[in-house]
Specification:
mainly alpha, 0% strand
Length: 148
C-alpha cells in the first residue's frame, strides 16, 4: 500500500500538468488567429535582410537562396507551428487560450495583431533613441562602476 501511495504521489504532478489533446487544439487555434504567422514571417525577413547586408554583393543572390532553403527546412512557421502551440499551451490554460482566440478573432484583436510588429519595432526604436540621447551619462556610469 505504501509503495502504491508513493507511486501516485510521484505521478500526480505529471498528470496535473499534462496537456490534453483538446488543450493543444485550443492552443493551435490561438496560434492561427493571433497573427503569429505574419509576425514570424516579418521577423524572418528582417533576419534575412540583416544577414544579407553583411554579405558582399557578388555573393548575395546565392546566399539568399541558401538561407531561404535552410529557413524553409528548419525555421519556417509551418515547421515550428507545433512547437509554438506547445509553448502557448505550457503558459495558458485551455480556457485562457479559448478567450485569447475569441479576442484575436474579433475586429479589435485582428487590428491589434496587425499592428503588433510595427508597435514592437517603434518601441525598440524609442528605447534606442533614449539610450542614444543619454549615452554620455550611461558611459560615465559604466566607467564609474568598473573603477572599483
Amino acid at each position: 500500500m505504501k509503495k502504491f501511495l508513493i507511486a501516485i504521489l510521484v505521478a500526480l504532478p505529471s498528470l496535473a500538468f499534462s496537456q490534453t489533446a483538446q488543450h493543444l487544439k485550443a492552443s493551435e487555434q490561438f496560434v492561427e488567429v493571433s497573427g503569429l504567422k505574419s509576425s514570424f514571417d516579418d521577423m524572418v525577413g528582417m533576419i534575412l535582410n540583416t544577414q544579407t547586408g553583411a554579405v558582399p554583393e557578388q555573393y548575395r543572390e546565392k546566399f539568399i537562396g541558401v538561407m531561404k532553403k535552410f529557413m524553409g527546412k528548419y525555421f519556417s512557421y509551418e515547421v515550428l507551428k507545433p512547437s509554438f502551440a506547445k509553448m502557448y499551451a505550457d503558459e495558458f490554460t485551455e480556457e485562457e487560450l479559448n478567450e485569447l482566440t475569441k479576442f484575436y478573432s474579433s475586429a479589435t484583436g485582428k487590428k491589434f495583431a496587425g499592428k503588433m510588429a510595427g508597435l514592437t519595432q517603434k518601441g525598440m526604436e524609442l528605447g534606442r533613441k533614449l539610450v542614444e540621447e543619454h549615452k554620455p551619462e550611461l558611459e560615465r556610469m559604466i566607467k564609474e562602476a568598473f573603477k572599483q
